[in-house]
Design brief:
Radius of gyration: 24 Å
CATH class of the largest domain: Alpha Beta
Distance between the termini: 45 Å
Strand order of the largest sheet: 20-27-26-25-24-21-22-23
CATH superfamily of the largest domain: Alpha-D-Glucose-1,6-Bisphosphate, subunit A, domain 3
Number of helices: 16
Number of domains: 3
CATH architecture of the largest domain: 3-Layer(aba) Sandwich
Structural class: alpha+beta
Helix content: 25-40%
CATH topology of the largest domain: Alpha-D-Glucose-1,6-Bisphosphate, Chain A, domain 3
Largest sheet: 8 strands, antiparallel
Length: 560
Amino acid sequence: MTTKPGNVKDKMDKFKSLEFGTSGLRDKVTAMTDMECYINTRGFIMFLEERGELNASDKDIALGGDLRSSTPRIMSAVSLAIKNSGYRALFCGRVPTPTLAYYAMCKCIPSIMVTGSHIPDDRNGIKFTKKHGEVLKEDEADILRNVERARISEYGKTLQESLFDENGMLKEIYNLPEAEFETDSINMYINRYLEVFKGKPLLRKRIVLYQHSAVGRDIVQEIFEGLGADVVPIERSNKFIPVDTEKVSIDTTSLLMKASMEHKPFAIITTDGDSDRPLLADENGRFLPGDKLGALVSIFLSPDFVAIPISANDAVVSSLDEREIKVMQTRIGSPYVIDAMNSEIERNPGSKVAGWECNGGFLLGSDWPIDDSTLKSLPTRDAVLPLICVLLLAVKGHQTVSELVTSSLPDRYTHSDVIDEKAPGCEIYTAEMGKTIIKMLSPGNSDISQVDFTKEGIKTNGVDCSTGSYHNLTLIKEKLYHYFTKGRGFVDIVSINFIDGIRIVFSNNDVVHLRPSGNAPEFRIYATADTQEATNRIVGKTADIIPGIIRDLIKKDGGE
């Protein structure tokens, strides 16, 4: 029989460990074995025990999942891990991520959501939430440390002792408990909106709901019908469809246009797979990007402070500045937005604080007075609130959705795309390579978040550049000029931001933002410009540049 120390080494070599992405654990379904999901859940529970969030009297952990094909199997492994850790899974069934999170936060218990969000069906993920909100980046090291404890314990078992076979799958089927908390969690989420937005404010407004495979499709329909809308559901699917609200596919764009012509709606709405990211199209089927959606929500809610990622359209920032709303730009990902919101609440406890991401997911950091009611805080991505707020803003102004957008926001456009290992010239690209590229094009001093190149000289973080940094920053600019050439249609670089990836501003106000994924072989490209055609051109040209950067990186590594 294999000795236990050998068991650990063999399994370390055989099985892949899950890693945190921007928000939560994600990977290909083949890597998310029952054993790996079980180990990560045990580790998260150990972390909660270490933090004092679970003890002898606190025995409940809420559990839910989306509609992708691998979710039931993964939920079974998670549920078993909860049980074997000595706790009870409050199984809420197939519900949206914000529904599960809201239910758990109201009950002051942790939650675990099995979802891959908007990514394809061959991938999935697990999202952990503490009693009072999302897992933050500062929590990840402690969670992973406890996951390693759980891993060593599980890997140390012989095949006979283990619950799992040689492929990391459960030897015996473990059935999920009954979803006895599904109705309560859904009703709590629906009432969150219907008890605040009273009087059927969307009465007789025709809303087309693109249902696809969104886990919240029926819940969203019930909420909007409760608001008085005439909801027309379309394109319900039993097969999982990966709708990305940040990178809207040609198929989705065509569907929106077709629905607008066929149904003549006030608006078209949908969400991503786990229904925490909204998609709104106007009466003509034109998609409204999530960063602009969030700006309109802020006009409706009138917050004191908002946190938004650095990738947001600069028109969003200017429109909020004009309304004297304090703006903090963060790294990309809800944990960073939440951290900024928490810091503001700590500084100004009575302030109205919100945030959002460029995918449209809106986070409410404070309880919010609306008319004679209070909308409770929900500091995690939500799809329903932003859709309601923008439609009510249009109704209040007696405008169509397109008129609202035109009258409220400057004409600045965005476009984004993803380059991965499938793109020509990027076949050898890895997530680690993406980090190296950003490091190669960034200053050695991590305190420098912004560099401005002016006629008077160089400024870092708004202050005149020190002599020691001058040469390094000039060199970075020259490296970027090597790729972003005039021959490709680019002009002088006037500023570079390093908060998350590299955000380059050119003298004609065109913007390119490069950001690699933390745990996948993907490089996301964002562009902002004065026309949609310009953003499309910028993304296309930048996509052609990435393979050249990869080739140069390989040459550099080969010569060292």
